[in-house]
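Help: why these numbers?

___
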Amino acid sequence: MSFRFRKWTIGPVTLLECGQSGILQDLLAKILILSILQKYIFREWFWTALAVSIVLVIVLLGAYLSDILKDIAGGRIPAGLLGIQLLLHMPETLGNILPLAGFVAVMWGLGRFYRDQEMAVMRSSGFNWKKLLKPLFSLVIPMAVALLFLGLSLAPTTARMAEEQLEAAFRSAAVWGLQAGKFHVLRQGELILYAEAIGEDGSTLKNIFIKQRNKEREQVWVAQTGRYWMDADTGDRYLVLENGKVTDVAPGQLDLRVLSFARNDLRLPEPEFRKRKSAKINSVSSAELFKNGNVESIAELQWRLSPAITVIILGLLAIPLSHSEPREGRGVRIVLGILVYILYGNLLYLCRSWVIEGTLPPYIGMWWVHLVFLIISFAWIRKQGRFPVKANST
């Protein structure tokens, strides 16, 4: 038996037709080709999803920027790493907002079709809910693939890079944001640091003045030289002061002590990357998590896979949620959709905690949440997709 092959092109996609019947051609054409109406719906969803994503990225990065500025003021993050930290935080931000963006885009687009009576015209021409699946999957499947890449590969890599940048930066006064001849206020005024000069290596300071305050006492440190030092075992950062003296005083009391020292190690504020307990698991590669196989690793893997699954299920759920009566506004449906999204996300978060704590078996994990919402989506779609049967004329 012989077969012949010839090329067949759909836009940028080149296919092979096998045999005279062209069965492969017809099958792939049905999968890849969208009708004019389906293209119109897809464009509406795509541009809405893009606009929502941009707005959400700006909002979340703004909130993250506010947290970074607080950490910079407290001395927990170097000021010189502000830009790179925002950039490395972008994959995690995209992983958080893309499912919501796709969900809102489908609901908002279909809501407009219902409001402008376009959906009524579509249905009267035989365009039922099943024909919405092709443009829907054309939107959410690429988003799911992107979320898989972000969650399993890119986000852990950038999280690890962010921690490495912080750890390396705290060894350098220049990157930490210290400038020669200027006073630097840390810990909301509890620590004031001044250095007359900074060495070329960025870690050596000269003619240092430090004022440290706690609830009961104040200390003033003066030293000729100083340098940064990090404990390899604990990760604590110290400023090593050499050839100086410290004045310890209790405000409002006649209690004053002056001590001279050849060397004194002053502990600096704890870095932000050490304060975040979840940062370690967030920066572990997916391959290493799979190899570990403990409950925490399994919970983290399921958490990284969840956005890709969620965007597909929420896309399906948006079809019945966006259904509205002719005079009904879109606002009520959008609010209802946001509540569903919050419920979905909170259940996933709770399941993650339960798996880590041992309350929920790992093989159940977050899968039951996805399954329940998937069943609800198909049941709801099927119910709304039934058209009323016309009565027979007599």
Remarks:
- Residues 180-270 form one domain.
